[in-house]
């Protein structure tokens, strides 16, 4: 757990979240998302899917299971997509789960922030021990990515699609993003979970990140396969820490993951 007061100033500011500026989205009695008021008003056009609930909205109780909710929400999202609401549409589904791990619904990934749904992800810190000390592989995101192009990122990072878990997602992403064979990727060690929610222009960026670390042989050089990474750099810890101080050089999630890794090793204040 990283205390926000110990983070670089830019990262503290990026994690600000004024809940009073949003309306809750409920499923039954449980809150499952956050809505900007203007977006909540737009969703009122689908009373068969959303109904008023206190200061926010709730999924209709007639949508009694995950399949019905997913189907109804997909129709809403498609209509809003036709209005150009969701640039960067992925045709990739995330799954929303309750506290017990029961799937509640599936939704198009590009809509996550508008609804404040939790976006599950897996990130990998790629570490190399050299004679001069520990180094970390840092990726630069492709300039063509829909989200945060050109920013620094963890060696491997990807959203966990519906039906996958963190470990299986990581193995897939390790090959796609870094050309890492599955046999090597399976050596990654689970190293905890990071969660945050922050206000963004679309709504709320809420993430739950499964963090993994891997000690890589010095001879392994990551090679991107899917066009989502422009370059990789193997940096000493001191250089990683310097770049983490530069406002928005890293994505917010990658900065948190890298800092967490270095602090667990006693290498960051």
Describe what this molecule looks like in 3D.
The model has no long low-confidence stretch (mean pLDDT 96). This protein has helices spanning 9-14, 37-43, 66-82, 112-115, 166-178, 182-185, 237-244, 252-264, and strands spanning 23-27, 30-35, 50-53, 56-59, 93-97, 103-108, 118-130, 133-141, 152-154, 156-159, 189-200, 203-215, 229-236. The protein has 8 helices and 13 strands. Helix 7 crosses helix 8. The longest helix is centred in the N-terminal third of the chain and has 17 residues, at 66-82. The strands form 3 sheets. Strands 7, 8, 9, 10, 11, 12 and 13 form a 7-stranded mixed β-sheet that branches. It folds into 2 domains: 7-15 and 119-264, Alpha-Beta Complex (Nucleoside Triphosphate Pyrophosphohydrolase), CATH 3.90.79; 19-114, Transcription Regulator spoIIAA, CATH 3.30.750. 27% of the residues lie in helices and 34% in strands. A hairpin with a 2-residue loop joins strand 3 (50-53) and strand 4 (56-59). It has 269 residues and is α+β, with helices and mostly antiparallel strands.
């Amino acid at each position: 757990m990283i205390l926000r007061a110990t983070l670089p100033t830019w990262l503290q500011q990026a994690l600000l979240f004024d809940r009073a500026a949003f309306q809750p989205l409920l499923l039954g009695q449980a809150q499952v998302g956050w809505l900007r008021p203007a977006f909540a008003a737009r969703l009122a056009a689908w009373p068969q899917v959303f109904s008023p609930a206190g200061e926010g909205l709730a999924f209709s109780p007639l949508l009694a299971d995950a399949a019905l909710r997913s189907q109804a929400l997909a129709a809403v999202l498609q209509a809003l997509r036709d209005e150009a609401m969701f640039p960067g549409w992925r045709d990739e589904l995330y799954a929303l789960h309750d506290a017990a791990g029961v799937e509640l619904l599936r939704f198009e990934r590009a809509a996550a922030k508008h609804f404040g749904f939790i976006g599950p992800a897996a990130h990998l810190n790629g570490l190399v021990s050299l004679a001069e000390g520990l180094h970390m592989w840092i990726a630069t995101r492709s300039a063509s990515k829909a989200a945060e192009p050109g920013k620094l990122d963890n060696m491997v990072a990807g959203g966990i699609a519906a039906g996958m878990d963190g470990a299986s997602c990581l193995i897939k992403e390790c090959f796609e993003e870094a050309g890492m064979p599955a046999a090597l990727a399976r050596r990654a060690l689970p190293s905890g979970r990071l969660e945050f929610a922050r206000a963004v222009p679309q709504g709320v960026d809420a993430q739950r990140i499964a963090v993994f670390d891997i000690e890589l042989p010095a001879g392994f050089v990551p090679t991107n396969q899917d066009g989502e990474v422009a370059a990789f750099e193997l940096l000493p810890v001191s250089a990683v820490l310097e770049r983490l101080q530069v406002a928005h050089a890293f994505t917010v999630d990658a900065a948190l993951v890298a800092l967490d890794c270095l602090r667990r090793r006693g290498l960051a204040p």
